[in-house]
């Protein structure tokens, strides 16, 4: 028993030795006398109050934290539907904030932030939000916030603020990607970075990396989409029993003949269940490219499910770097995009 206690104590001392002190001093203007603030911390996916703070006569509160990693904290007024002040602190930071409580707007506006790039970014965000409330122009502030975050992708606060676009994820996915790419090397374990990384990995839209496909060809050999990196690739989801697919095949053949010598390839994924019908359709439709794969599971195809295929024919155009360019381009639109990509 003593040995286990000694080991536990040693671990605690080791952790304590590496933790660094950070301080946050915030002075509030406009708080009613006797106002209490709650310090909230994330636990189990929700914010939990962990302390109560009472501002001094000057409206000032001070937080002292010891940590080895960035911390996300929220200060809120102790009331129903309280306005919130979001904090990100790094070890050893000494942050000084000035804030104004705006009861008519139920909002806390940050007027000054010193000692932290994260909190200065939050100040600029706060100012944009305040102008939005006052001017009643949410579209303008949304555009301004996008510009703001595009210019600060390497600031951890960006990974939190970009989640304000969550319901418009597909529209702002390139912004998510820019922030994720700038932060994932240093903050791979941060909850916000992991969240936006997860959203991006589950999304298959323009600008995202195309997930690899590894399935057998008619001879049973495994072919990989990733082996075509360096070429412009049309992933073509089809099946022998699909009439629209078979009618579309002559156009795909013409594209292949026209562009194959310029770095273009077709990677056909069949949603067939019959090996013989699949192979027979390849021959009959003169699908002469070498990349044909299928697990013969029909709509349960692993690749089809990975790419969220709900109907066929369906295509995904991938650039030389392996990133998705567009989905379901047809006719002249596909021709134009291939000319553009292959000319680069």
Q: What's the helix and strand layout?
A:
Layout: H1 2-18, E1 20-29, E2 37-43, E3 46-53, E4 60-67, E5 71-77, E6 84-89, E7 94-102, E8 107-114, H2 117-135, H3 138-150, H4 156-161, H5 169-183, H6 191-202, E9 214-216, E10 222-224, E11 232-238, H7 243-259, E12 264-270, H8 275-284, E13 292-293, H9 302-306, E14 314-318, E15 324-327, H10 331-343
Parallel strand pairs: 1-7, 11-12, 12-13
Antiparallel strand pairs: 1-4, 2-3, 2-5, 5-6, 7-8, 9-10, 11-14, 14-15
Helix pairs in contact: 2-3, 5-6
Structural commentary:
This protein is α+β, with helices and mostly antiparallel strands. Helix content is 37%, strand content 27%. The protein has ten helices and 15 strands. The chain has helices at 2-18, 117-135, 138-150, 156-161, 169-183, 191-202, 243-259, 275-284, 302-306, 331-343; strands at residues 20-29, 37-43, 46-53, 60-67, 71-77, 84-89, 94-102, 107-114, 214-216, 222-224, 232-238, 264-270, 292-293, 314-318, 324-327. Strand 12 (264-270), helix 8 (275-284) and strand 13 (292-293) form a beta-alpha-beta unit. Helix 2 (117-135) packs antiparallel against helix 3 (138-150) and helix 5 (169-183) packs across helix 6 (191-202). It is elongated, with a radius of gyration of 27 Å. Mean pLDDT is 88; it is low at 1-16.
Radius of gyration: 27 Å
Helices and strands, in N-to-C order?
HEEEEEEEEHHHHHEEEHEHEHEEH
| Proportion in helices | 25-40%
End-to-end Cα distance: 69 Å
Poorly predicted regions are: 1-16
Mean pLDDT: 88
Overall strand count:
15
Estimate the global geometry from the Cα principal axes: elongated
Give, in spatial order, the strands making up the sheet with the most strands. 13-12-11-14-15
Q: Which structural class do the helices and strands define?
A: alpha+beta
Describe the sheet with the most strands: 5 strands, mixed
Number of helices: 10
- The oligomeric state is single chain
Q: Strand fraction band? A: 25-35%
């Amino acid at each position: 028993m003593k040995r286990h206690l000694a080991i536990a104590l040693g671990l605690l001392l080791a952790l304590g030795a590496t933790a660094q002190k950070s301080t946050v001093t915030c002075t509030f203007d406009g708080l009613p006398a006797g106002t209490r603030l709650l310090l909230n911390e994330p636990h189990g996916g929700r914010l939990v109050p962990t302390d109560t703070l009472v501002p001094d006569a000057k409206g000032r509160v001070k937080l002292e934290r010891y940590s080895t990693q960035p911390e996300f904290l929220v200060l809120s007024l102790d009331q129903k539907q309280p306005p919130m002040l979001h904090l990100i602190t790094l070890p050893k930071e000494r942050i000084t904030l000035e804030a104004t409580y705006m009861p008519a707007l139920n909002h806390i506006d940050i007027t000054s932030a010193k000692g932290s790039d994260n909190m200065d970014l939050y100040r600029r965000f706060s100012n944009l939000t305040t102008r939005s409330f006052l001017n009643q122009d949410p579209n303008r502030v949304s555009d301004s916030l996008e510009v703001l975050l595009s210019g600060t992708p390497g600031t951890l606060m960006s990974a939190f603020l970009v989640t304000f676009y969550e319901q418009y994820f597909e529209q702002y996915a390139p912004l998510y990607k820019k922030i994720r790419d700038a932060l994932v090397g240093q903050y791979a374990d941060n909850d916000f970075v992991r969240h936006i990384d997860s959203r991006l990995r589950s999304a298959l839209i323009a600008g995202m990396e195309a997930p690899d496909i590894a399935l057998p060809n008619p001879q049973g050999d495994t072919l990989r989409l990733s082996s075509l990196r360096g070429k412009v690739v049309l992933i073509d989801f089809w099946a022998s029993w699909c009439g629209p697919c078979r009618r579309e095949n002559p156009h795909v053949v013409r594209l292949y003949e026209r562009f194959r010598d310029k770095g273009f390839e077709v990677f056909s994924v069949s949603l067939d269940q019959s090996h013989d019908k699949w192979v027979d359709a390849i021959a009959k439709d003169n699908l002469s490219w070498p990349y044909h794969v299928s697990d013969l599971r029909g709509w349960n195809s692993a690749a089809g499910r990975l790419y969220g295929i709900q109907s066929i024919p369906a295509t995904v155009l991938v650039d030389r770097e392996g990133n998705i360019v567009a989905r379901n381009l047809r006719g002249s639109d596909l021709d134009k995009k291939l000319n553009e990509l292959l000319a680069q």
